[in-house]
Protein backbone atom coordinates (compact mmCIF):
# COMPACT_ATOMS: atom_id res chain seq x y z
CA UNK A 1 0.00 0.00 0.00
CA UNK A 2 1.79 3.07 -1.20
CA UNK A 3 0.61 6.61 -1.17
CA UNK A 4 -0.56 7.70 -4.59
CA UNK A 5 1.66 10.09 -6.49
CA UNK A 6 -0.16 13.34 -6.08
CA UNK A 7 0.87 16.96 -6.03
CA UNK A 8 2.06 18.08 -2.64
CA UNK A 9 1.42 21.69 -1.74
CA UNK A 10 3.53 22.83 1.21
CA UNK A 11 2.54 26.36 2.14
CA UNK A 12 4.75 28.28 4.55
CA UNK A 13 2.00 30.51 5.92
CA UNK A 14 -1.72 30.56 6.58
CA UNK A 15 -2.03 33.19 3.86
CA UNK A 16 -0.33 30.91 1.35
CA UNK A 17 -2.57 28.02 2.43
CA UNK A 18 -5.67 30.10 1.84
CA UNK A 19 -4.34 30.96 -1.59
CA UNK A 20 -3.96 27.29 -2.44
CA UNK A 21 -7.42 26.49 -1.10
CA UNK A 22 -8.97 29.29 -3.12
CA UNK A 23 -7.34 27.90 -6.23
CA UNK A 24 -7.79 24.16 -5.71
CA UNK A 25 -10.99 24.01 -3.57
CA UNK A 26 -12.52 20.48 -3.67
CA UNK A 27 -9.62 19.12 -5.71
CA UNK A 28 -7.29 19.34 -2.73
CA UNK A 29 -7.35 17.53 0.60
CA UNK A 30 -5.87 19.19 3.70
CA UNK A 31 -3.40 17.20 5.78
CA UNK A 32 -2.47 18.15 9.33
CA UNK A 33 -0.85 15.31 11.31
CA UNK A 34 -1.74 12.84 8.59
CA UNK A 35 -3.04 10.03 10.79
CA UNK A 36 -6.47 10.21 9.14
CA UNK A 37 -5.80 11.46 5.63
CA UNK A 38 -2.75 9.31 4.85
CA UNK A 39 -4.71 6.12 5.61
CA UNK A 40 -7.59 7.21 3.39
CA UNK A 41 -5.09 7.97 0.63
CA UNK A 42 -3.33 4.61 1.01
CA UNK A 43 -6.64 2.82 0.77
CA UNK A 44 -7.71 4.96 -2.19
CA UNK A 45 -10.87 5.98 -0.35
CA UNK A 46 -10.22 9.54 -1.41
CA UNK A 47 -8.54 10.58 -4.63
CA UNK A 48 -7.77 14.29 -4.44
CA UNK A 49 -5.63 15.87 -7.11
CA UNK A 50 -3.39 17.45 -4.52
CA UNK A 51 -2.54 17.34 -0.85
CA UNK A 52 -2.29 20.56 1.15
CA UNK A 53 0.39 19.60 3.64
CA UNK A 54 0.32 21.93 6.62
CA UNK A 55 3.51 20.72 8.29
CA UNK A 56 5.34 23.98 7.66
CA UNK A 57 2.57 25.81 9.50
CA UNK A 58 3.20 23.86 12.69
CA UNK A 59 5.31 26.54 14.36
CA UNK A 60 2.70 29.21 13.52
CA UNK A 61 -0.37 27.19 14.50
CA UNK A 62 0.91 25.28 17.54
CA UNK A 63 0.15 27.29 20.63
CA UNK A 64 -1.90 27.30 23.79
CA UNK A 65 -2.41 30.73 25.31
CA UNK A 66 -4.58 32.15 28.02
CA UNK A 67 -5.87 35.71 28.29
CA UNK A 68 -9.03 37.67 29.09
CA UNK A 69 -10.80 34.56 30.28
CA UNK A 70 -10.23 32.62 27.06
CA UNK A 71 -7.90 29.80 26.20
CA UNK A 72 -6.79 29.75 22.58
CA UNK A 73 -5.36 26.64 20.99
CA UNK A 74 -3.75 26.63 17.56
CA UNK A 75 -5.31 24.07 15.24
CA UNK A 76 -2.01 22.27 14.66
CA UNK A 77 -1.25 21.80 18.35
CA UNK A 78 -0.53 18.12 18.82
CA UNK A 79 -2.62 15.97 21.12
CA UNK A 80 0.49 15.08 23.11
CA UNK A 81 1.02 18.80 23.74
CA UNK A 82 -2.58 19.10 24.93
CA UNK A 83 -1.88 16.18 27.24
CA UNK A 84 0.92 17.92 29.12
CA UNK A 85 0.32 21.64 28.65
CA UNK A 86 0.41 23.52 31.98
CA UNK A 87 -2.33 26.01 31.01
CA UNK A 88 -4.77 23.22 30.17
CA UNK A 89 -3.78 21.23 33.22
CA UNK A 90 -4.48 24.23 35.38
CA UNK A 91 -7.74 25.49 33.86
CA UNK A 92 -9.25 22.61 31.85
CA UNK A 93 -7.65 19.35 33.02
CA UNK A 94 -10.55 17.41 31.52
CA UNK A 95 -9.32 18.42 28.07
CA UNK A 96 -5.78 17.24 28.80
CA UNK A 97 -7.16 13.95 30.05
CA UNK A 98 -9.42 13.56 27.03
CA UNK A 99 -6.47 14.17 24.72
CA UNK A 100 -4.35 11.66 26.66
CA UNK A 101 -6.80 8.88 25.83
CA UNK A 102 -6.81 9.27 22.08
CA UNK A 103 -5.34 6.37 20.12
CA UNK A 104 -1.70 5.80 21.05
CA UNK A 105 1.29 7.90 22.14
CA UNK A 106 2.71 7.65 18.62
CA UNK A 107 -0.47 8.95 17.03
CA UNK A 108 -0.88 11.67 19.67
CA UNK A 109 2.58 12.95 18.78
CA UNK A 110 1.61 13.68 15.20
CA UNK A 111 -2.13 14.26 15.30
CA UNK A 112 -3.60 17.66 16.03
CA UNK A 113 -6.60 19.20 17.75
CA UNK A 114 -7.85 20.54 14.40
CA UNK A 115 -7.47 17.14 12.81
CA UNK A 116 -9.26 15.49 15.70
CA UNK A 117 -12.22 17.85 15.38
CA UNK A 118 -12.26 17.21 11.63
CA UNK A 119 -11.85 13.44 11.92
CA UNK A 120 -13.67 11.93 8.97
CA UNK A 121 -16.80 9.87 9.63
CA UNK A 122 -16.29 6.13 9.50
CA UNK A 123 -18.26 3.10 8.41
CA UNK A 124 -17.10 -0.42 7.68
CA UNK A 125 -18.69 -0.35 4.26
CA UNK A 126 -16.72 2.77 3.43
CA UNK A 127 -13.41 2.30 5.22
CA UNK A 128 -12.88 -1.28 4.15
CA UNK A 129 -14.36 -1.04 0.67
CA UNK A 130 -11.00 -1.24 -1.06
CA UNK A 131 -9.19 -3.66 1.22
CA UNK A 132 -8.49 -6.34 -1.36
CA UNK A 133 -7.50 -3.51 -3.72
CA UNK A 134 -10.61 -3.98 -5.77
CA UNK A 135 -14.05 -2.54 -5.17
CA UNK A 136 -15.82 -5.41 -3.51
CA UNK A 137 -19.19 -3.78 -3.38
CA UNK A 138 -20.99 -0.92 -5.08
CA UNK A 139 -19.70 2.50 -4.13
CA UNK A 140 -21.74 4.00 -1.30
CA UNK A 141 -22.85 7.62 -0.85
CA UNK A 142 -19.67 8.47 1.02
CA UNK A 143 -17.71 7.19 -1.96
CA UNK A 144 -19.84 9.37 -4.21
CA UNK A 145 -21.93 6.39 -5.25
CA UNK A 146 -25.64 5.81 -5.02
CA UNK A 147 -26.37 3.43 -2.15
CA UNK A 148 -25.94 3.00 1.57
CA UNK A 149 -25.01 -0.56 2.52
CA UNK A 150 -26.16 -0.04 6.10
CA UNK A 151 -29.74 0.78 5.12
CA UNK A 152 -29.63 -0.77 1.67
CA UNK A 153 -31.43 2.31 0.37
CA UNK A 154 -30.71 4.87 -2.31
CA UNK A 155 -32.19 7.81 -0.43
CA UNK A 156 -28.97 9.76 0.00
CA UNK A 157 -28.72 9.18 3.75
CA UNK A 158 -25.28 8.07 4.92
CA UNK A 159 -24.87 6.47 8.36
CA UNK A 160 -21.13 6.91 8.70
CA UNK A 161 -20.21 7.56 12.33
CA UNK A 162 -18.39 10.55 13.77
CA UNK A 163 -16.07 9.32 16.52
CA UNK A 164 -13.70 12.20 17.28
CA UNK A 165 -13.10 12.43 21.01
CA UNK A 166 -12.40 16.07 21.67
CA UNK A 167 -15.58 17.47 20.11
CA UNK A 168 -17.70 15.69 22.72
CA UNK A 169 -15.95 17.68 25.43
CA UNK A 170 -15.26 20.92 23.58
CA UNK A 171 -18.96 21.34 22.80
CA UNK A 172 -20.04 21.25 26.47
CA UNK A 173 -17.08 23.49 27.29
CA UNK A 174 -18.55 26.10 24.94
CA UNK A 175 -15.59 26.09 22.56
CA UNK A 176 -15.56 27.88 19.21
CA UNK A 177 -13.48 27.32 16.11
CA UNK A 178 -11.98 29.96 13.87
CA UNK A 179 -12.20 29.25 10.15
CA UNK A 180 -10.24 31.26 7.64
CA UNK A 181 -10.19 31.71 3.89
CA UNK A 182 -9.21 34.40 1.44
CA UNK A 183 -12.69 35.80 1.98
CA UNK A 184 -12.07 36.40 5.66
CA UNK A 185 -12.47 34.75 9.05
CA UNK A 186 -15.47 33.37 10.83
CA UNK A 187 -16.05 31.90 14.25
CA UNK A 188 -18.43 29.02 14.92
CA UNK A 189 -19.40 27.10 18.03
CA UNK A 190 -17.80 23.66 17.66
CA UNK A 191 -21.27 22.14 17.54
CA UNK A 192 -22.00 24.05 14.33
CA UNK A 193 -18.94 22.66 12.58
CA UNK A 194 -20.82 19.45 11.83
CA UNK A 195 -23.40 18.98 9.11
CA UNK A 196 -24.84 15.71 10.39
CA UNK A 197 -24.23 14.21 6.93
CA UNK A 198 -22.06 11.09 7.00
CA UNK A 199 -20.81 11.64 3.48
CA UNK A 200 -19.86 15.28 4.03
CA UNK A 201 -19.51 15.71 7.78
CA UNK A 202 -18.25 19.31 8.03
CA UNK A 203 -19.65 22.68 7.09
CA UNK A 204 -16.30 24.06 5.99
CA UNK A 205 -16.44 25.65 2.57
CA UNK A 206 -13.95 24.12 0.08
CA UNK A 207 -11.69 27.18 0.43
CA UNK A 208 -11.70 27.29 4.24
CA UNK A 209 -9.38 25.91 6.86
CA UNK A 210 -9.60 25.65 10.63
CA UNK A 211 -6.87 27.60 12.42
CA UNK A 212 -7.86 27.97 16.07
CA UNK A 213 -10.00 26.57 18.86
CA UNK A 214 -11.01 29.00 21.60
CA UNK A 215 -12.77 28.14 24.83
CA UNK A 216 -13.82 30.14 27.86
CA UNK A 217 -11.98 29.30 31.06
CA UNK A 218 -14.45 27.20 33.07
CA UNK A 219 -16.00 29.09 35.95
CA UNK A 220 -15.55 28.24 39.61
CA UNK A 221 -17.93 25.51 40.65
CA UNK A 222 -17.86 23.65 37.34
CA UNK A 223 -16.76 20.08 36.81
CA UNK A 224 -16.10 18.41 33.51
CA UNK A 225 -15.16 15.03 32.18
CA UNK A 226 -14.96 12.99 29.00
CA UNK A 227 -15.45 9.23 29.14
CA UNK A 228 -15.51 6.73 26.33
CA UNK A 229 -15.84 3.05 25.67
CA UNK A 230 -13.76 1.22 23.11
CA UNK A 231 -12.61 -2.34 22.65
CA UNK A 232 -8.86 -1.88 22.76
CA UNK A 233 -7.31 1.23 24.27
CA UNK A 234 -6.05 2.29 20.88
CA UNK A 235 -9.44 1.97 19.12
CA UNK A 236 -11.87 4.68 18.10
CA UNK A 237 -14.62 5.34 20.63
CA UNK A 238 -17.64 3.08 20.26
CA UNK A 239 -19.55 5.46 22.53
CA UNK A 240 -18.32 8.59 24.25
CA UNK A 241 -19.74 11.32 26.44
CA UNK A 242 -18.53 14.77 27.46
CA UNK A 243 -20.21 16.44 30.42
CA UNK A 244 -19.77 19.88 31.96
CA UNK A 245 -21.80 20.64 35.07
CA UNK A 246 -21.92 24.13 36.49
CA UNK A 247 -22.70 24.40 40.14
CA UNK A 248 -23.20 27.51 42.23
CA UNK A 249 -19.97 28.18 44.13
CA UNK A 250 -17.84 25.24 45.22
CA UNK A 251 -18.98 21.93 43.66
CA UNK A 252 -20.02 19.24 46.09
CA UNK A 253 -22.16 16.11 46.17
CA UNK A 254 -25.34 17.98 46.96
CA UNK A 255 -24.70 21.02 44.78
CA UNK A 256 -27.68 21.96 42.68
CA UNK A 257 -26.75 21.99 39.01
CA UNK A 258 -27.09 25.47 37.58
CA UNK A 259 -26.52 24.17 34.07
CA UNK A 260 -25.53 20.94 32.42
CA UNK A 261 -24.05 20.49 28.99
CA UNK A 262 -23.76 17.03 27.51
CA UNK A 263 -22.47 15.85 24.14
CA UNK A 264 -21.98 12.36 22.75
CA UNK A 265 -19.56 11.00 20.20
CA UNK A 266 -19.78 7.79 18.16
CA UNK A 267 -23.53 8.18 18.46
CA UNK A 268 -24.37 9.51 15.00
CA UNK A 269 -22.88 11.23 12.01
CA UNK A 270 -22.07 14.28 14.14
CA UNK A 271 -21.53 14.87 17.86
CA UNK A 272 -24.92 14.77 19.58
CA UNK A 273 -26.01 17.43 22.10
CA UNK A 274 -28.39 15.78 24.53
CA UNK A 275 -30.54 18.80 25.35
CA UNK A 276 -33.21 16.64 26.97
CA UNK A 277 -30.76 15.41 29.59
CA UNK A 278 -29.38 18.94 30.02
CA UNK A 279 -32.90 20.23 30.75
CA UNK A 280 -33.57 17.34 33.10
CA UNK A 281 -30.53 18.10 35.23
CA UNK A 282 -30.96 21.86 35.42
CA UNK A 283 -31.64 23.18 38.96
CA UNK A 284 -31.58 19.63 40.30
CA UNK A 285 -29.28 17.82 42.67
CA UNK A 286 -27.79 14.63 41.27
CA UNK A 287 -29.39 11.49 42.64
CA UNK A 288 -29.05 7.91 41.39
CA UNK A 289 -32.59 8.07 40.07
CA UNK A 290 -31.94 11.30 38.17
CA UNK A 291 -28.75 9.86 36.78
CA UNK A 292 -30.68 6.85 35.49
CA UNK A 293 -33.19 9.11 33.75
CA UNK A 294 -30.38 11.14 32.17
CA UNK A 295 -28.74 7.94 30.94
CA UNK A 296 -31.98 6.81 29.30
CA UNK A 297 -32.31 10.17 27.55
CA UNK A 298 -28.75 9.96 26.23
CA UNK A 299 -29.30 6.50 24.83
CA UNK A 300 -32.59 7.59 23.23
CA UNK A 301 -30.79 10.31 21.31
CA UNK A 302 -27.90 8.16 20.20
CA UNK A 303 -28.05 6.44 16.82
CA UNK A 304 -26.20 3.14 16.67
CA UNK A 305 -25.99 0.97 13.56
CA UNK A 306 -24.10 -2.14 12.55
CA UNK A 307 -21.32 -0.35 10.77
CA UNK A 308 -18.46 -0.15 13.23
CA UNK A 309 -16.56 -2.69 15.29
CA UNK A 310 -19.02 -3.03 18.14
CA UNK A 311 -22.66 -3.97 17.65
CA UNK A 312 -25.44 -1.47 18.43
CA UNK A 313 -26.78 -3.32 21.47
CA UNK A 314 -23.40 -3.36 23.16
CA UNK A 315 -22.84 0.30 22.33
CA UNK A 316 -26.20 1.18 23.87
CA UNK A 317 -25.24 -0.65 27.04
CA UNK A 318 -21.81 0.97 26.97
CA UNK A 319 -23.35 4.44 26.70
CA UNK A 320 -25.80 3.76 29.56
CA UNK A 321 -22.91 2.63 31.71
CA UNK A 322 -20.76 5.59 30.69
CA UNK A 323 -23.44 8.12 31.60
CA UNK A 324 -24.07 6.46 34.94
CA UNK A 325 -20.37 6.27 35.75
CA UNK A 326 -19.76 9.81 34.55
CA UNK A 327 -22.50 11.46 36.53
CA UNK A 328 -22.02 9.31 39.61
CA UNK A 329 -18.37 10.24 39.78
CA UNK A 330 -19.07 13.91 39.09
CA UNK A 331 -21.61 13.75 41.91
CA UNK A 332 -18.81 12.77 44.27
CA UNK A 333 -16.28 15.15 42.73
CA UNK A 334 -14.50 17.93 44.56
CA UNK A 335 -14.02 21.35 42.99
CA UNK A 336 -12.86 20.99 39.38
CA UNK A 337 -11.70 17.42 39.83
CA UNK A 338 -11.70 15.49 36.58
CA UNK A 339 -11.53 11.84 35.83
CA UNK A 340 -9.49 10.26 33.10
CA UNK A 341 -10.89 8.42 30.07
CA UNK B 1 6.76 14.10 -9.89
CA UNK B 2 10.40 14.80 -9.24
CA UNK B 3 12.50 13.37 -6.51
CA UNK B 4 14.15 15.64 -4.00
CA UNK B 5 17.63 15.25 -2.68
CA UNK B 6 17.45 15.52 1.08
CA UNK B 7 19.69 14.76 4.01
CA UNK B 8 18.29 12.52 6.71
CA UNK B 9 20.07 12.02 10.01
CA UNK B 10 19.47 8.43 11.06
CA UNK B 11 21.15 6.94 14.10
CA UNK B 12 23.67 9.75 14.09
CA UNK B 13 24.63 9.21 10.47
CA UNK B 14 23.81 11.62 7.64
CA UNK B 15 22.29 10.00 4.57
CA UNK B 16 21.87 11.79 1.24
CA UNK B 17 18.76 10.33 -0.32
CA UNK B 18 16.70 11.06 -3.40
CA UNK B 19 13.08 10.70 -2.37
CA UNK B 20 9.62 11.45 -3.62
CA UNK B 21 7.81 13.79 -1.22
CA UNK B 22 5.05 11.21 -0.87
CA UNK B 23 7.36 8.46 0.36
CA UNK B 24 6.80 7.54 3.97
CA UNK B 25 9.65 7.36 6.46
CA UNK B 26 9.03 3.61 6.65
CA UNK B 27 9.61 3.16 2.93
CA UNK B 28 12.71 5.31 2.94
CA UNK B 29 14.22 3.59 5.98
CA UNK B 30 13.66 0.11 4.62
CA UNK B 31 14.00 0.50 0.88
CA UNK B 32 16.17 3.53 0.25
CA UNK B 33 18.53 3.42 3.20
CA UNK B 34 18.34 -0.32 3.74
CA UNK B 35 17.60 -0.24 7.46
CA UNK B 36 15.08 -3.06 7.65
CA UNK B 37 14.94 -3.28 11.44
CA UNK B 38 11.84 -1.08 11.40
CA UNK B 39 8.95 -3.30 10.37
CA UNK B 40 5.87 -2.83 8.24
CA UNK B 41 3.00 -4.48 10.13
CA UNK B 42 -0.23 -2.89 8.99
CA UNK B 43 0.88 0.26 7.17
CA UNK B 44 -2.12 2.14 8.57
CA UNK B 45 -1.00 3.12 12.03
CA UNK B 46 -2.77 0.40 13.99
CA UNK B 47 0.01 -1.98 15.02
CA UNK B 48 2.98 0.16 16.02
CA UNK B 49 5.56 -2.16 14.46
CA UNK B 50 7.00 0.78 12.55
CA UNK B 51 7.60 2.95 15.63
CA UNK B 52 10.78 5.01 15.48
CA UNK B 53 11.95 8.00 17.51
CA UNK B 54 12.08 11.38 15.78
CA UNK B 55 13.68 14.04 17.96
CA UNK B 56 13.14 11.65 20.84
CA UNK B 57 9.39 11.27 20.28
CA UNK B 58 7.82 8.01 19.14
CA UNK B 59 6.18 8.28 15.74
CA UNK B 60 4.71 5.78 13.28
CA UNK B 61 7.03 5.69 10.31
CA UNK B 62 4.21 4.40 8.08
CA UNK B 63 2.23 7.58 8.66
CA UNK B 64 5.14 9.99 8.58
CA UNK B 65 6.39 11.51 5.35
CA UNK B 66 10.15 11.14 5.07
CA UNK B 67 10.47 14.68 3.77
CA UNK B 68 9.05 15.95 7.08
CA UNK B 69 12.01 14.45 8.92
CA UNK B 70 14.70 16.60 7.34
CA UNK B 71 16.66 18.34 10.04
CA UNK B 72 15.44 15.97 12.73
CA UNK B 73 17.19 13.15 14.57
CA UNK B 74 15.76 9.81 13.61
CA UNK B 75 16.53 6.87 15.87
CA UNK B 76 15.72 3.33 14.75
CA UNK B 77 16.29 -0.03 16.41
CA UNK B 78 19.62 -0.26 14.60
CA UNK B 79 20.80 2.78 16.51
CA UNK B 80 20.51 1.32 19.99
CA UNK B 81 23.33 -1.16 20.25
CA UNK B 82 26.71 0.47 20.80
CA UNK B 83 30.07 -1.09 20.01
CA UNK B 84 28.55 -4.50 19.57
CA UNK B 85 26.79 -4.39 22.94
CA UNK B 86 23.03 -4.50 23.18
CA UNK B 87 21.18 -1.61 24.77
CA UNK B 88 19.81 -2.60 28.21
CA UNK B 89 16.30 -2.60 26.72
CA UNK B 90 17.33 -5.02 24.01
CA UNK B 91 19.12 -7.22 26.54
CA UNK B 92 16.13 -7.16 28.88
CA UNK B 93 13.75 -8.16 26.08
CA UNK B 94 15.97 -11.12 25.32
CA UNK B 95 16.46 -12.09 28.97
CA UNK B 96 12.79 -11.83 29.93
CA UNK B 97 11.47 -13.83 26.98
CA UNK B 98 9.77 -10.78 25.48
CA UNK B 99 10.92 -11.72 21.97
CA UNK B 100 9.02 -14.59 20.37
CA UNK B 101 8.50 -14.06 16.67
CA UNK B 102 10.25 -10.73 17.08
CA UNK B 103 8.19 -8.78 14.58
CA UNK B 104 6.76 -6.31 17.07
CA UNK B 105 10.03 -6.08 18.96
CA UNK B 106 11.76 -3.14 17.27
CA UNK B 107 8.63 -1.00 17.59
CA UNK B 108 8.10 -2.00 21.20
CA UNK B 109 11.71 -1.35 22.14
CA UNK B 110 11.64 2.11 20.54
CA UNK B 111 8.47 3.08 22.34
CA UNK B 112 9.86 1.64 25.57
CA UNK B 113 12.96 3.79 25.16
CA UNK B 114 10.72 6.83 24.77
CA UNK B 115 8.86 5.86 27.95
CA UNK B 116 12.06 5.43 29.96
CA UNK B 117 13.61 8.61 28.60
CA UNK B 118 10.73 10.55 30.11
CA UNK B 119 9.89 8.37 33.07
CA UNK B 120 12.94 6.44 34.29
CA UNK B 121 11.07 4.23 36.75
CA UNK B 122 7.57 3.72 35.36
CA UNK B 123 4.92 1.69 37.12
CA UNK B 124 3.42 -1.32 35.40
CA UNK B 125 0.36 0.75 34.58
CA UNK B 126 2.47 3.51 33.04
CA UNK B 127 4.31 0.98 30.90
CA UNK B 128 1.07 -0.63 29.76
CA UNK B 129 -0.37 2.79 28.92
CA UNK B 130 2.77 3.65 27.01
CA UNK B 131 2.64 0.56 24.81
CA UNK B 132 -1.05 0.69 23.85
CA UNK B 133 -0.03 1.59 20.32
CA UNK B 134 2.04 -1.58 19.86
CA UNK B 135 0.40 -4.91 19.13
CA UNK B 136 2.05 -8.19 20.00
CA UNK B 137 0.36 -11.44 19.00
CA UNK B 138 2.84 -13.70 20.75
CA UNK B 139 3.74 -12.69 24.25
CA UNK B 140 0.54 -11.38 25.81
CA UNK B 141 2.61 -8.36 26.90
CA UNK B 142 3.48 -9.70 30.39
CA UNK B 143 7.07 -10.48 29.51
CA UNK B 144 7.29 -7.15 27.68
CA UNK B 145 6.25 -5.24 30.80
CA UNK B 146 8.74 -7.28 32.84
CA UNK B 147 11.48 -6.50 30.33
CA UNK B 148 10.82 -2.77 30.39
CA UNK B 149 10.70 -2.77 34.19
CA UNK B 150 13.95 -4.67 34.36
CA UNK B 151 15.63 -2.38 31.82
CA UNK B 152 14.44 0.62 33.81
CA UNK B 153 16.18 -0.74 36.90
CA UNK B 154 19.37 -1.45 34.98
CA UNK B 155 19.37 2.00 33.38
CA UNK B 156 18.66 3.79 36.61
CA UNK B 157 21.56 2.12 38.37
CA UNK B 158 23.89 2.47 35.40
CA UNK B 159 27.45 3.74 35.59
CA UNK B 160 26.36 7.39 35.39
CA UNK B 161 23.83 7.13 38.15
CA UNK B 162 25.22 4.59 40.54
CA UNK B 163 24.54 5.55 44.11
CA UNK B 164 27.21 4.76 46.56
Could you describe the 3D structure shown?
The complex is a heterodimer of chains A (341) and B (164). Chain A is an alpha+beta fold and 341 residues long. Chain A is 30% helix and 20% strand. Chain A has 13 helices and twelve strands. The longest helix of chain A is centred in the C-terminal third of the chain and has 20 residues, at 312-331. The radius of gyration of chain A is 20 Å and the shape is globular. Chain B is of the alpha+beta class and 164 residues long. Chain B has five helices and five strands. A five-stranded mixed β-sheet of chain B has the order 2-1-5-3-4, sandwiched between helices. The model of chain B has no long low-confidence stretch (mean pLDDT 95). Chain A binds chain B through residues 1-8, 10, 34-35, 38-39, 42-43, 51, 53, 55, 80, 103-107, 109-110, 232-234, and chain B through 1, 20-24, 27, 43-46, 48, 51, 57-60, 63-65, 68, 111, 114, 129-130, 132-134.
Task: Write the topology of this structure.
The complex is a heterodimer of chains A (341) and B (164).
Chain A: E1 7-9, H1 14-24, E2 28-31, H2 37-42, E3 50-53, H3 58-61, E4 64-67, E5 70-74, H4 79-84, H5 86-91, H6 93-100, H7 105-110, H8 113-117, H9 124-127, H10 167-170, E6 176-181, E7 184-189, E8 209-216, E9 222-229, E10 239-247, E11 257-265, E12 272-273, H11 275-281, H12 288-301, H13 312-331
Parallel strand pairs in A: 1-3, 2-3
Antiparallel strand pairs in A: 4-5, 5-8, 6-7, 6-8, 9-10, 10-11, 11-12
Helix pairs in contact in A: 11-12, 12-13
Chain B: E1 4-10, E2 13-19, H1 25-32, E3 51-54, E4 57-60, E5 73-75, H2 88-95, H3 105-118, H4 124-130, H5 142-156
Parallel strand pairs in B: 1-5
Antiparallel strand pairs in B: 1-2, 3-4, 3-5
